[in-house]
Write a structure and sequence with these properties.
119 residues, 68% helix
């Protein structure tokens, strides 16, 4: 497994966060949309468009994308955990986990391991 493959976990996490944010925004916007009242009577305005349906469709699409990414994340984490089991050095395993799974910066990893840049 290459470092780039291992870092896919981070990018999937970021994508999940973005999708969750989009979904939350959409739900917030939907709170202010009034459902169309269907009486069956013509109103002379032309075509019918129910905005609530549009929001619900977009919400379902975003939720499906989110579920797919959550599944991808589980698969990638499983693969990464299997890879980590093959690493002999415990410190190296910890560094890889902190960098790829927890996405810490090199400085934060150094602090976590009580190491200084000069060592």
């Amino acid at each position: 497994m290459t470092f780039e493959q291992a870092c896919q976990i981070y990018y999937i996490h970021m994508e999940i966060k973005a999708l969750q944010l989009d979904l939350a925004r959409l739900k917030e916007e939907r709170r202010y949309v009034k459902a169309t009242n269907l009486t069956g009577m013509p109103n002379g305005k032309g075509g019918y468009k129910n905005w609530m349906d549009e929001y619900l469709i977009k919400e379902e699409e975003l939720q499906n994308l989110l579920n797919e990414n959550l599944y991808k994340l589980q698969v990638e984490r499983k693969n990464f955990e299997e890879f980590l089991q093959g690493v002999e050095d415990a410190q190296m395993r910890l560094i890889l986990r902190l960098r790829c799974v927890n996405n810490l910066s090199w400085e934060a990893i150094g602090e976590e391991l009580d190491k200084d840049r000069r060592t």
